[in-house]
Amino acid sequence: MAKRSATGDSPIETVTHNLPDLARMGLGKKPAWSRQSEDLSINLISCTAGQGVGSHMNSEVDVLLVGIEGEGSVEIDGHWHGIQPGLLLIIPKGTQRATRCDGNDFAYLTCHRRRAGLWPTDHRDGNAIPQGGQS
């Protein structure tokens, strides 16, 4: 059953989800599964040997990461942390991070406070284009 959020922008689900099954069904999709509420952003990432998410920095929110299936690693500011099903890692905002699959497959769930949408960038000067118009 889904109930509309207070702002009416996205439904809030009150059902359970089998994350290992969703990871297997979504293998190769980016993300394998995703949900957003008014307050949260949740993403299930599922990858195979040699795959992962490249190095990037998030300066806005802390991220909770939970291992769902397989074996993988998460790099935080140059230090690798092994992740297996059931292990949890909190990634502080402002840190450089990356993930990789260390076995045949690796699935993990991330959850963080919902951020504002990404703004298109004017590649001529690197500045964000203001909402509703060109710069």
CATH topology-level name:
Jelly Rolls
Largest sheet: 7 strands, antiparallel
State the helical fraction. Answer: under 10%
Q: Let me know the number of strands.
A: 9
Beta percentage is: over 45%
**CATH-wise, what's the superfamily?**
Jelly Rolls
Number of domains: 1
Per CATH, the architecture is Sandwich
**Succession of helices and strands:** EEHEEEEEEE
Alpha carbon gap, first and last residue: 42 Å
Given helix and strand content, the structural type is mainly beta
**What shape does the CA trace take?**
globular
Low-confidence stretches: 126-135
Mean pLDDT: 83
Q: Can you count the helices?
A: 1
In CATH's first tier, which class applies? Mainly Beta
Question: Rounded to an integer, what's the Rg over CA atoms?
Answer: 17 Å
Describe this structure in words.
With 135 residues, the protein is mainly β. It has one domain: Jelly Rolls, CATH 2.60.120. Helix content is 5%, strand content 49%. The protein has one helix spanning 19-25, and strands spanning 2-4, 11-13, 33-36, 40-48, 52-57, 63-76, 79-83, 88-91, 96-113. The strands form 2 sheets. Strands 3, 4, 5, 6, 7, 8 and 9 form a 7-stranded antiparallel beta sheet that branches. Strands 1-2 form a two-stranded antiparallel ribbon. It starts with a strand and ends in a 22-residue tail after the last strand. Residues 126-135 have low confidence and may be disordered.
